[in-house]
Amino acid sequence: MGIPAQSVCTAIREDIVSGVHERGSRLTEEQLARRYGVSRVPVREALRTLEAEGFVVTRRHAGACVAEPTEQEAADLLEIRMLLEPLGAARAARRRTEAHLKVLRGLVRLGQERARLGEGEDLRSLGAWFHETLAQASGSPGLTALLTQLRQKVTWMYAVDPPAAPAESWAEHGAIVDAVARGDAERARTLTAQHAERATAVHRLRFGSRTTGVRTSQHAVNIPGGRN
Predict the structure, then answer these.
(1) Which one, of 95, 103, 116, 134, lies nearest residue 171 by Cα?
(2) Helix, strand or coil for residue 204?
(3) How far apart are alpha carbons 10 and 97 in whole angstroms?
(4) pLDDT in tens, 155-177
(5) Are 206 and 160 in contact (CB under 8 A)?
(6) Distances in whole angstroms, Cα of residue 182 to Cα of each of 43, 58, 95, 137
(7) What CDD domains does UniProt report for this protein, alphabetically (predicted)?
């Protein structure tokens, strides 16, 4: 049974976001098929999807290449995310389930604990999990998918400095969850907008010198057993 194009697309996207495939580097079907242990057919489909998402561009005489976003495009993404995340939180206040609340509250407890211990790496992953769960709690698959794609693009374009006061950041997360739990949509929207605005201040563009080509990935090359 062949590996679906969706899995290949996820693998290529993750490697673009993590910098394995550098901005502007060529993405040939043959090279990618070897790298991920698949045929060229799912690679071709994956590249079309990634081009629609803005991660890949097709250039005359060069074919598919990793996109090279401008500073303005990167700034626009942050602005769009700052508009959509509060919307997602407001919808979560109306549509969340008890299961969503349980996960969100658990993440806040873990985040506050890790903040006290100064475990920055854990805080980054917990923060991503928190915002992903909050988006899912909106009950809107389209909005969830859009927010997920925005966060991936922001991760690709920006380096994020650790917040100066991580405990305060997680206190804000806790306040958002409280508003969501009470069903207070406007409070959830306002708190999330304030949190997003403060969080944006620690973003730094990754743009700068780059080496064209493909770096060695830390992940398994073949998808079977190596990727979900």
Answers:
(1) 116
(2) strand
(3) 28
(4) 999 988 777 788 999 999 999 99
(5) no
(6) 46, 48, 11, 14
(7) WHTH_GntR (cd07377)
Radius of gyration of the chain (CA): 19
Compute, in degrees rounded to 10, the torsion defined by CA atoms 11, 15, 16, 20.
-150
Name the residue with higher pLDDT: 77 or 222: 77
How would residue 124 be classed by pLDDT, with cut points 50, 70 and 90? confident
Which residue, 162, 165, 194, 197, is CA-closest to 179? 194
Helices (H) and strands (E) in the chain, counts: 9, 4
> Which has the higher per-residue pLDDT, 188 or 159?
188
Pick from 75, 181, 195: nearest CA to 131:
195
Rounded to 5 degrees, what angle do the CA atoms 138, 139, 141 make? 105
Which residue has better confidence, 1 or 194?
194
**Distance (Å, rounded) from C-alpha 202 to C-alpha 222?**
35
Kindly compute the dihedral angle of the four CA atoms of residues 28, 30, 36, 37, in this order, to the nearest 10 degrees.
170
Q: Helices 98-117 and 120-136, interaxial angle, to 10°? A: 160
Q: Is the pLDDT of residue 206 over 70?
A: yes
Q: What are phi and psi of 205, to 5 degrees?
A: -60, 135
CA dist., res. 38 & res. 160, Å (int): 34
CA angle, corner 18, sides to 13 and 19, nearest 5? 100
